[in-house]
Amino acid sequence: MSESYDYLFKFLVIGSAGTGKSCLLHQFIESKFKEDSSHTIGVEFGSKVVPVSGKQVKLQIWDTAGQERFKSVTRSYYRGAAGALLVYDVTRRDSFNALANWLADARSLASPNIVVLLVGNKSDLESQREVTFLEASRFAQENELMFLETSAKSGQNVVEAFSKCAKAIVTKIESGELDPDRIGSDSEAKGHALIAEARLNFEHQTMADSEAKGHALIAEARAKLQKPSGLLSFFFGGSSKVEDAVECYQRAGNMFKMAKKWNEAGKAFCEAASLHAKADSKHDAATNYAIEIYTDMGRFTMAARHHQSIAEIYETEAPDLEAATSHYEKAADYFRGEESNSSANKCILKVAQHAAQLADYEKAISIYEQVAATSLESSLLKYSAKEYFFRAGLCHLCVDMLNAQLALDRYIQQYPAFQDAREYKLLKVLMEHMEEQNVDGFTEAVKDYDSVSRFDQWYTTILLRIKKSVQDNPDLC
Ligand SMILES: Nc1nc2c(ncn2[C@@H]2O[C@H](COP(=O)(O)OP(=O)(O)OP(=O)(O)O)[C@@H](O)[C@H]2O)c(=O)[nH]1
Ligand SMILES: [Mg+2]
């Protein structure tokens, strides 16, 4: 079990949350990308023997949590570390800006002589890069750090990063600059390592148990749902089997959560949530729970998708536009947090659509205008701006003509080609008819347009409201 080695170095992997520290460690030890990495709780541990300048060096690596709330825990592991990988994410400037603080911590808590290698991770995401190689190498030079860009995903430079850092330590030892007895090969570190290894084994065992229980509960939930209801249950509360199934799904969710099977946990909680919604009972607890887990684990995309599917349930199976809107809004926020802009837009457009239907025109207008403006920034999406301006224009007409006119002028300034669009022309014609209180002309214009491109239910509702406002309230114009 015990491999032979010449040196044992304690290593730290530090840096902001989500920069890929755990993935780097996993890639280094397992030579694989960790697909489903979630935020590290406290610290994790790994070790590997690497050949360095003809010597066998055992690296005992402490992967620390980047989240602020674990700072006090992770700092207690810094002592005695010989080397550190200081990680930032090349696609996130904030993680680069935080480097100075991490470095100061490492030097003051581990040792002023700690050998630090700066790692710009996620180099595979070139198109999303926010930090250039040049400015990072400048930072490294100014702070006497070595520097590499890596990809924990492709594996590029990962082994090199650890080896390069280890090599620099060996060189320092051999030149007499470092005393090997005074760096992270002390018995305290060995003690830490043994405890961590024991803890990991224990966790693996209990996690496997929890996962098995989770699967059993899912099977139980399914069996409960398939049981025929019968006439009696109709009288004595037919929904009880649904409630039992919901409970099973929730318990399964908890088991999966303990097993760190986040995907399964989320699915189980969502099953529970959608059953609740269908049974039209109070389901907030379950949905929020599912979403909380994902948010907590930093998996915003997951949280977003779940908000989105709950919103869809509220749109179709258990109609409640306000609830749907609020879930779409949250989904959009989370998608935006992950920079999934097209998904965020899809959700926020739903919010606008429902807001208009609920007569909150101001909100709808502001969303449509915003989405139109962002679409104009991209040559691919530019074309869709006219639809959003059209929708915003119609919402304006539900409120008043003057602002509608001013808005149209603004839209043309932003997007001159809008003037030639059928949508713009229709808005203009409608406004003319409104001014003349010509309800028949209004109807004709709508009909003409509709014969070419059919209006869906949303447009029909809004157009009818505008028409009604002309009939009911001629002074409006
Ligand atoms: N494209 C790409 N994604 C990566 C890379 N490394 C990590 N990721 C992704 O980045 C996210 C965060 O990775 P983690 O390794 O868990 O981040 P961490 O730094 O350990 O986060 P904390 O534990 O909170 O400190 C995950 O979704 C990974 O899939 C990489 O090199 N390329
Ligand atoms: Mg981690």
UniProtKB/TrEMBL annotation:
Entry's family note: Belongs to the SNAP family.
Main location: membrane
Protein name stated in the entry: Uncharacterized protein
Lipid bilayer topology: Peripheral membrane protein
Keywords, alphabetical: ER-Golgi transport, GTP-binding, Membrane, Nucleotide-binding, Protein transport, Transport
GO molecular function, one term: soluble NSF attachment protein activity
Location of this chain's protein in the cell: Membrane
InterPro entries listed in its UniProt record: NSF_attach (IPR000744), P-loop_NTPase (IPR027417), Rab4 (IPR041819), Small_GTP-bd (IPR005225), Small_GTPase (IPR001806), TPR-like_helical_dom_sf (IPR011990)
GO biological process assignments: intracellular protein transport; Rab protein signal transduction; SNARE complex disassembly
NCBIfam families xrefs: small_GTP
SMART domains hit by this protein: ARF, RAB, RAN, RAS, RHO
PANTHER family given in the database record: ALPHA-SOLUBLE NSF ATTACHMENT PROTEIN (PTHR13768:SF8), SOLUBLE NSF ATTACHMENT PROTEIN SNAP (PTHR13768)
Organism: Cloeon dipterum
Function of the protein: Required for vesicular transport between the endoplasmic reticulum and the Golgi apparatus.
Pfam entry (one): SNAP
GO CC term (a single one): vacuolar membrane
